[in-house]
């Protein structure tokens, strides 16, 4: 009999704590801020890190908190991101909440609704950078071994393979730079890391100096960046 009572008691306790946990989860759940979600939808979504945040969501949160300017997303400057962010900023919280609900909490739909209501430019048509596949990245990385200049240039790039330069990864871009078929300024995430200056420095080096730096660093991009400084 004692066993039966104990089992029933344990069952009741389990049920009660389960219900309490479910209640607490719904009561204290952190609600997504629609403004942050709208800002995030207005960004390019390539997580390139050029703004100083590891990804677009970090920038979106900082922008919504008023900590970064609307021009802070560097690749977005060319695709009307500042104008869209301004439209979001100028919209009252009540209006944002209303649009958010009307759009079924879908950030893309809500952004389009807000932009057409405010007359701000529509969501970009600019060509979205395409992240290269791992196979593509590996293919161009393999081609570096026969090209010392491109190998050293590769070490000076951000090595995040974001595709923003229009090439399938940093190795592909390094090969183009080595052949003087591209401009280092096209690596937007690299602008904060002085990539153009570093590439110019490498291009002035003799083949012996390039070889020496590759040997000293064993081709490690981190060590190459340290050696190049700036
Ligand atoms: S610079 Fe723009 S695209 Fe790049 S991570 Fe920051 S917000 Fe995203
Ligand atoms: S070289 Fe191209 S792929 Fe590499 S970080 Fe720069 S923009 Fe992105």
Residue runs with pLDDT of under 50 for 5 or more positions: 20-30
Largest sheet at a glance? none
How would you describe the shape? elongated
Mean of the pLDDT scores? 86
- Tally the beta strands: 0
Q: What's the number of structural domains? A: 2
Q: How much strand?
A: under 5%
Query: What oligomeric state do these chains adopt?
Result: single chain
Please provide the ordered H/E string of secondary-structure elements: HHHHHHHHHHHH
Find the structural class using helix and strand composition. Answer: mainly alpha
Q: Which cofactor or ligand species appear?
A: iron/sulfur cluster
Please give the radius of gyration in angstroms: 25 Å
Termini gap:
79 Å
Helix coverage percent? 55-70%
Q: Count of DSSP helices?
A: 12
Tell me what you see in this structure.
By secondary structure, this protein is mostly helical. The protein has twelve helices and no strands. It has helices at residues 2-28, 34-42, 56-64, 81-90, 93-102, 107-118, 134-144, 148-156, 170-178, 195-203, 207-217, 221-228. Helix 7 packs parallel to helix 9 and helix 8 packs across helix 12 (221-228). The longest helix has 27 residues, at 2-28. It is elongated, with a radius of gyration of 25 Å. The chain starts with a helix and ends with a helix. The structure holds iron/sulfur cluster (2 copies). Residues 43-44, 46-51, 53, 55-56, 59, 73-76 line the site of one iron/sulfur cluster.
């Amino acid at each position: 009999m004692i066993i039966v009572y104990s089992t029933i008691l344990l069952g009741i306790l389990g049920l009660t704590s389960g219900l309490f946990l479910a209640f607490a989860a719904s009561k204290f759940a952190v609600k997504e801020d629609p403004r942050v979600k709208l800002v995030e939808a207005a960004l390019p979504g390539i997580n390139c890190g050029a703004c100083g945040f590891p990804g677009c969501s970090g920038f979106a949160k900082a922008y919504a908190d008023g900590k970064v300017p609307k021009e802070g997303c560097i690749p977005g400057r060319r695709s009307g991101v500042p104008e869209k962010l301004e439209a979001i900023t100028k919209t009252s919280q009540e209006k944002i909440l209303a649009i958010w609900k009307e759009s079924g909490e879908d950030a893309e739909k809500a952004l389009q609704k807000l932009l057409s209501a405010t007359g701000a430019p529509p969501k970009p048509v600019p060509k979205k950078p395409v992240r290269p596949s791992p196979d593509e990245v590996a293919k161009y990385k393999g081609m570096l071994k026969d090209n010392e200049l491109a190998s050293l240039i590769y070490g000076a790039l951000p090595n995040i393979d974001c595709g923003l330069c229009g090439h399938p990864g940093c190795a592909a871009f390094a090969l183009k730079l080595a052949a003087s078929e591209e401009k280092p300024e096209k690596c937007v995430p690299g602008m904060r890391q002085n990539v153009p200056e570093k590439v110019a420095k490498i291009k002035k080096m003799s083949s012996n100096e390039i070889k020496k730096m590759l040997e000293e660093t064993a081709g490690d991009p981190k060590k190459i960046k340290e050696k190049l400084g700036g």
